[in-house]
Design brief:
alpha+beta, four-stranded antiparallel sheet
Length: 205
Amino acid sequence: MKIICIGRNYHEHALELGNEPPKEPMFFLKPDSSVLHQRHAFYIPDWSKEVHYEVEVVVKIKKLGKAIQLKFASRYYDEIGLGIDFTARDVQKKLKEAGHPWEKAKSFDGAAVVSDKFYSLEDLGKNVQDLNFDLSINGVVVQSGNTSDMLFQVDELITYISKFMTLKTGDLIFTGTPAGVGMVNAGDHITGKLEGFQMLNVNVK
Protein backbone atom coordinates (compact mmCIF):
# COMPACT_ATOMS: atom_id res chain seq x y z
CA MET A 1 0.00 0.00 0.00
CA LYS A 2 1.29 3.43 -0.93
CA ILE A 3 -0.02 6.86 -0.04
CA ILE A 4 -0.07 9.36 -2.88
CA CYS A 5 -0.57 12.98 -1.81
CA ILE A 6 -1.65 15.73 -4.17
CA GLY A 7 -0.11 19.14 -3.53
CA ARG A 8 -1.79 22.52 -4.09
CA ASN A 9 -5.03 21.09 -5.47
CA TYR A 10 -7.16 23.90 -4.01
CA HIS A 11 -6.58 27.39 -5.38
CA GLU A 12 -6.91 29.30 -2.10
CA HIS A 13 -4.61 26.93 -0.24
CA ALA A 14 -1.89 27.37 -2.85
CA LEU A 15 -2.16 31.13 -2.44
CA GLU A 16 -2.17 31.09 1.37
CA LEU A 17 1.30 29.54 1.33
CA GLY A 18 2.58 31.91 -1.34
CA ASN A 19 2.56 29.36 -4.15
CA GLU A 20 1.26 29.60 -7.68
CA PRO A 21 -1.53 27.10 -8.45
CA PRO A 22 0.01 24.29 -10.52
CA LYS A 23 -0.63 23.81 -14.22
CA GLU A 24 -0.71 20.02 -13.81
CA PRO A 25 -1.11 17.75 -10.78
CA MET A 26 1.84 17.57 -8.43
CA PHE A 27 2.22 14.65 -6.09
CA PHE A 28 4.52 13.08 -3.53
CA LEU A 29 4.48 9.82 -1.57
CA LYS A 30 4.21 8.91 2.08
CA PRO A 31 5.35 5.47 3.28
CA ASP A 32 2.98 3.11 5.08
CA SER A 33 5.04 3.74 8.23
CA SER A 34 3.67 7.30 8.29
CA VAL A 35 0.11 6.09 8.95
CA LEU A 36 -1.20 7.08 12.37
CA HIS A 37 -3.88 4.73 13.60
CA GLN A 38 -6.59 6.65 15.42
CA ARG A 39 -6.24 4.71 18.65
CA HIS A 40 -2.87 6.48 19.00
CA ALA A 41 -2.14 10.13 19.76
CA PHE A 42 -0.12 12.29 17.38
CA TYR A 43 3.19 13.28 18.95
CA ILE A 44 4.75 16.46 17.59
CA PRO A 45 8.30 15.52 16.54
CA ASP A 46 11.02 17.14 18.62
CA TRP A 47 12.87 18.29 15.48
CA SER A 48 10.09 20.62 14.31
CA LYS A 49 8.65 23.74 15.90
CA GLU A 50 5.82 24.24 13.38
CA VAL A 51 3.73 21.22 12.44
CA HIS A 52 0.61 22.04 10.41
CA TYR A 53 -2.63 20.13 9.92
CA GLU A 54 -4.04 19.66 6.39
CA VAL A 55 -7.39 17.85 6.10
CA GLU A 56 -7.96 15.92 2.87
CA VAL A 57 -10.55 13.68 1.24
CA VAL A 58 -8.96 10.27 0.71
CA VAL A 59 -9.80 7.96 -2.20
CA LYS A 60 -9.10 4.23 -1.85
CA ILE A 61 -8.08 2.40 -5.03
CA LYS A 62 -9.95 -0.89 -5.46
CA LYS A 63 -8.10 -2.60 -8.32
CA LEU A 64 -4.82 -2.72 -10.20
CA GLY A 65 -4.38 -0.13 -12.92
CA LYS A 66 -1.72 1.42 -15.16
CA ALA A 67 -2.11 4.14 -17.82
CA ILE A 68 -5.80 4.45 -16.96
CA GLN A 69 -7.91 6.35 -19.47
CA LEU A 70 -10.00 9.19 -18.08
CA LYS A 71 -13.26 7.57 -19.18
CA PHE A 72 -12.44 4.48 -17.11
CA ALA A 73 -10.96 6.18 -14.02
CA SER A 74 -14.18 6.03 -11.98
CA ARG A 75 -14.03 2.22 -12.12
CA TYR A 76 -10.94 2.22 -9.90
CA TYR A 77 -12.53 3.51 -6.69
CA ASP A 78 -15.80 3.58 -4.81
CA GLU A 79 -14.77 4.20 -1.19
CA ILE A 80 -14.02 7.61 0.30
CA GLY A 81 -12.41 8.47 3.61
CA LEU A 82 -10.80 11.44 5.33
CA GLY A 83 -7.22 12.08 6.33
CA ILE A 84 -4.76 14.57 7.76
CA ASP A 85 -1.47 15.30 6.05
CA PHE A 86 0.65 16.53 8.95
CA THR A 87 3.47 18.74 7.66
CA ALA A 88 6.56 20.03 9.42
CA ARG A 89 6.19 23.43 7.80
CA ASP A 90 9.43 24.92 9.12
CA VAL A 91 11.39 21.97 7.79
CA GLN A 92 9.51 22.02 4.49
CA LYS A 93 10.31 25.70 4.02
CA LYS A 94 14.04 25.05 4.37
CA LEU A 95 13.87 22.09 2.00
CA LYS A 96 11.99 24.12 -0.63
CA GLU A 97 14.48 26.97 -0.36
CA ALA A 98 17.32 24.51 -0.95
CA GLY A 99 15.52 22.84 -3.85
CA HIS A 100 15.37 19.53 -1.98
CA PRO A 101 12.53 16.95 -1.81
CA TRP A 102 9.87 17.38 0.88
CA GLU A 103 9.79 13.85 2.32
CA LYS A 104 11.54 14.78 5.57
CA ALA A 105 8.72 17.24 6.31
CA LYS A 106 5.86 15.07 5.03
CA SER A 107 6.69 11.39 5.51
CA PHE A 108 7.72 11.04 9.14
CA ASP A 109 6.06 8.53 11.47
CA GLY A 110 2.49 9.57 12.25
CA ALA A 111 2.31 12.16 9.46
CA ALA A 112 -0.64 10.49 7.70
CA VAL A 113 -3.87 10.15 9.66
CA VAL A 114 -6.38 7.95 7.85
CA SER A 115 -9.97 7.47 8.94
CA ASP A 116 -10.84 3.98 10.17
CA LYS A 117 -14.09 4.17 8.23
CA PHE A 118 -14.47 4.58 4.47
CA TYR A 119 -17.89 5.21 2.94
CA SER A 120 -19.04 4.16 -0.49
CA LEU A 121 -20.28 6.94 -2.74
CA GLU A 122 -23.60 5.11 -2.76
CA ASP A 123 -23.78 5.34 1.04
CA LEU A 124 -22.95 9.03 0.90
CA GLY A 125 -25.47 9.59 -1.87
CA LYS A 126 -23.13 12.10 -3.47
CA ASN A 127 -20.86 12.55 -6.45
CA VAL A 128 -17.16 12.41 -5.58
CA GLN A 129 -16.85 16.00 -6.83
CA ASP A 130 -19.51 17.31 -4.44
CA LEU A 131 -18.39 16.22 -0.98
CA ASN A 132 -18.33 18.54 2.03
CA PHE A 133 -15.64 18.04 4.63
CA ASP A 134 -14.15 19.95 7.54
CA LEU A 135 -11.62 19.87 10.36
CA SER A 136 -12.06 21.22 13.89
CA ILE A 137 -9.54 21.89 16.64
CA ASN A 138 -10.86 22.01 20.19
CA GLY A 139 -14.39 22.28 18.81
CA VAL A 140 -13.70 25.17 16.43
CA VAL A 141 -13.87 24.60 12.66
CA VAL A 142 -10.55 25.64 11.14
CA GLN A 143 -10.87 24.15 7.65
CA SER A 144 -13.89 23.44 5.49
CA GLY A 145 -14.09 22.57 1.83
CA ASN A 146 -15.99 20.93 -0.97
CA THR A 147 -14.39 18.65 -3.53
CA SER A 148 -16.00 20.68 -6.32
CA ASP A 149 -13.24 23.24 -5.68
CA MET A 150 -10.42 20.88 -6.65
CA LEU A 151 -8.20 22.20 -9.42
CA PHE A 152 -7.82 18.63 -10.70
CA GLN A 153 -10.71 16.24 -10.18
CA VAL A 154 -10.35 12.73 -8.77
CA ASP A 155 -10.64 10.99 -12.16
CA GLU A 156 -8.03 13.34 -13.62
CA LEU A 157 -5.69 12.55 -10.73
CA ILE A 158 -6.04 8.82 -11.25
CA THR A 159 -5.34 9.16 -14.97
CA TYR A 160 -2.33 11.39 -14.35
CA ILE A 161 -0.75 9.35 -11.54
CA SER A 162 -1.21 6.07 -13.41
CA LYS A 163 0.95 7.40 -16.26
CA PHE A 164 3.94 7.24 -13.95
CA MET A 165 3.21 4.42 -11.52
CA THR A 166 0.92 1.44 -11.24
CA LEU A 167 -2.00 1.90 -8.87
CA LYS A 168 -2.65 -1.12 -6.67
CA THR A 169 -5.59 -2.31 -4.62
CA GLY A 170 -5.59 -0.49 -1.28
CA ASP A 171 -3.51 2.47 -2.41
CA LEU A 172 -4.70 5.77 -0.95
CA ILE A 173 -4.85 9.12 -2.73
CA PHE A 174 -4.89 12.20 -0.49
CA THR A 175 -6.60 14.62 -2.87
CA GLY A 176 -5.40 17.97 -1.53
CA THR A 177 -6.35 20.40 1.22
CA PRO A 178 -8.45 23.57 1.21
CA ALA A 179 -7.35 26.87 2.71
CA GLY A 180 -7.09 27.28 6.47
CA VAL A 181 -4.07 25.15 7.34
CA GLY A 182 -2.36 26.01 10.59
CA MET A 183 -0.22 24.91 13.48
CA VAL A 184 -1.04 22.18 15.97
CA ASN A 185 -0.07 22.37 19.63
CA ALA A 186 0.26 19.82 22.39
CA GLY A 187 -3.11 19.37 24.05
CA ASP A 188 -5.15 20.00 20.91
CA HIS A 189 -8.07 17.71 20.10
CA ILE A 190 -8.68 17.33 16.36
CA THR A 191 -11.88 16.05 14.76
CA GLY A 192 -12.83 15.77 11.10
CA LYS A 193 -16.13 15.24 9.31
CA LEU A 194 -17.12 14.08 5.83
CA GLU A 195 -20.70 14.85 4.79
CA GLY A 196 -21.57 15.22 8.47
CA PHE A 197 -20.06 11.87 9.50
CA GLN A 198 -17.31 12.14 12.11
CA MET A 199 -14.28 10.47 10.58
CA LEU A 200 -11.27 11.69 12.57
CA ASN A 201 -10.57 11.95 16.28
CA VAL A 202 -6.96 12.72 17.20
CA ASN A 203 -5.26 13.97 20.35
CA VAL A 204 -2.02 15.92 19.95
CA LYS A 205 0.83 15.51 22.41
